[in-house]
UniProtKB/TrEMBL annotation:
Organism: Planotetraspora thailandica
Keyword DNA-binding tagged: yes
PROSITE patterns reported for this sequence: HTH_LACI_1 (PS00356), HTH_LACI_2 (PS50932)
Name of the protein in question: LacI family transcriptional regulator
Alphabetical list of Gene3D superfamilies matching this protein: 3.40.50.2300, lambda repressor-like DNA-binding domains
Amino acid sequence: MADVAKAAGVSHQTVSRVLNEHPNVRAETRDRVLKAIDRLGYRRNMVARALVTRHSRTLGVVSFDTILYGPASTVYGIEQAARDAGYFVSIVSLRTIDRAGVRDAIDYLTEQGVDGIVVVAPQRSAASALEDLPRGIPVVAVEGGHGGAAPVICVDQAEGARLATAHLLDFGHETVWHVRGPQDWLEAEGRIEGWEAALTAAGREIPDVLSGDWSPRSGYEAGKRLAAMADEVSAVFVANDQMALGVLRAFTEEGVRVPDQISVVGFDDIPESEFFSPPLTTVRQDFGAVGRHSIDVLLKQIEAEGRGETERFVVPPDLVVRASSAPRNS
């Protein structure tokens, strides 16, 4: 900084004001300082800055190693929102999400000096780790149930499932079958809850649930079973788009026409869903909004130098109607 000050003919305090975008610096002086910074290749020493300000401008994210669209898109949304707010992100990806793993990851990030941590906790086992968090570090949970000691940001999974099921009922289908996600996933539980609520409110029969594990293969296997019952099945709500892809493949192989014989609705609105055959009606989650709200709540905690209220912010989903759903044939 002293070198920049000498090259620009100003004091080092003026260089500091320019770097921190202080308003009381003349435009001519600011321009001269910025040109000197560019010419000398000056870069801030972030370690030294952290020692002075007690903030590293780095946020931690705890997630798990997955290629699933929802969790991966959530992490991307968080990272983009953090960058927009002027923060770097340090990510710890766990192979399995459990209480010990989440706690170890939080301890590791705390030792690295992050200013706050976002925990992506879509499974019940991960959410339970949020009940006993270390003091002194701001934490926000994404999904995470009711969060325990941390604020929670989540998409309204139950409302998304309710929208999907009500859409099919409005098309005249007597009931709607469901291919669920795996046990222990809070999102799978929320989608079952919304599906059941819509059927109950309409006074319709609740069929037996078919189990899946989020993969196209599990959707394919469920689709084979549903195709064998095509005389009694006219509508299916599948808990994610990857499983819906498997269902559609099974129906095609078994000669079941979608949506002429059976309507299909998915969940997530992955980029490929509009190119399925037929294009998939599905529920869209706003992962960008999840990321923005997560970072906003975390930064408020950081500014307050501690944990705030354990609020729960719910992001609404949207139904995207395409060609895989249609009125029931009489």
